[in-house]
Amino acid sequence: MRARGGWRIIRGVQCLAVISMENLTPEAMEQVAAYFRALSEPTRLAILNLLREGERNVGELAQLCSCSPANVSRHLSLLSQHGLVRREGRGTAVYYRIADDSVYALCDLVCGNIARRYQRSQPFPGV
Amino acid sequence: MRARGGWRIIRGVQCLAVISMENLTPEAMEQVAAYFRALSEPTRLAILNLLREGERNVGELAQLCSCSPANVSRHLSLLSQHGLVRREGRGTAVYYRIADDSVYALCDLVCGNIARRYQRSQPFPGV
DNA sequence: GCATTATTTGCGTGATTGGTTAATTAGTCA
DNA sequence: TGACTAATTAACCAATCACGCAAATAATGC
């Protein structure tokens, strides 16, 4: 992967900014696709949404999104594999928290795209 | 739907993030998931990448990404359904172009997330 | 109309995925 | 150690998906 723009300073923070998807190898492209795939499931989006306010354990998340603990655990495992959430066992429970806030920026960006798209024809469904 | 935030800079990418994913109905959440699903396939990402430089017809895209025209046509149909590309027939050919440049901001943002993740452990695969 | 080229669509197939249930593992406390 | 709770994993099923192939559709020129 070529870092176009490379490292730059944004508001005093050194960031690896403006990486482009161009000229990626097939393996890297698959990584990007897999990242999007992790976000392509309503239940996983709901879980990420629930973690906005802070950490939660598996049982809490299962109750809040009306899923079985087994199901939630698997979703969390997948999210963890892609670095979206961080795992921390405390006692018999396992707490999960967001690993990178930029996920919300991504989701909100997509929300905006969809909303703008619907504003040209019909209102955004379920607003 | 509440408009909040407006333009913001996320890791060097200017984004119109007016909308938040919070408090979405299940149907709206499914829309967001479907949008991500459209981006969760390497071939579709490759097609979007090829359209960076301008419009292309189905045959050209098929040749450039080593896929069958039928396959490419199907991918384009799906991308079109989600408002990612725009269709325009000219002669017997059908040309597609990017409908919204913000897709690239999304993809590049994800590239950055993955690259940062790998920098902590191993180099990004396929650099 | 007929032939040609480009695109789309119908259908079958193998692979992947989300969900459920049950078994297993991990941690705590008596 | 044994009982108990929470989380993970395995096995399985149903649904979805990407792809290949072939048929159908659309647009152009003879």
UniProtKB/TrEMBL annotation, chains A, B:
The keyword Zinc does not apply. GO terms for molecular function: DNA binding; DNA-binding transcription factor activity. Residues 24-118 form the HTH arsR-type domain. It comes from the Bacteria. The keyword Transcription applies. Pfam families: HTH_20. Keywords: DNA-binding, Transcription, Transcription regulation. This is Transcriptional regulator, ArsR family. It comes from Pseudomonas flexibilis.
